Amino acid sequence: KVPNLPLCNIDDVHLPPNTETEWYNWFLWEQFANRFASALLAPRHLALAFLRKANFDPLVLEQQFGLTYETAAHRTVILAPARLHFVKVVAGRELVKAHSDHRVELPYTAMRICGYWSAAAALESAALGQLVTQRTRLVDSGEELVCLTRLAKNADGEISAISVGARLENAKLF
Question: Residue-wise over 81-102: b if at least 16 C-beta within 10 A, else e?
């Protein structure tokens, strides 16, 4: 029998990290929680079948599994056979999240440049659900990136720009 425990929102008990190490550990736990939740909601074999048919557009997971677009984008980055990255920007051009699958050696600044500017442009001019694309060449390395961004609304009605990006050689996945 499951005990009758009071429910509480994790935000009610979470204190913000104070040090760089605490932030890093908090980020790892959040990543783990996102991976676990998305795996439960969109099992690998089913999600991959839908993603392959839709050219790895996270929108298909949102529609087929009832996920938020953000969760669908996380799951797409995790399952894609190519190396992808994820960026989330909210109103005021505030970068909230930027990460890549553990196999990616893409520098954090590269994710931030491509995904951030694509997301900022979407927040300024795109309609909810509209796809915004950006191709970026990094000055220092000459590497080219492609980012696909959509505006999404969460349960609280807040709008954010979610970008999924890849190196140009992996963009054929899209």
Answer: ebbbbbbbbbeeeeeebbbbbe
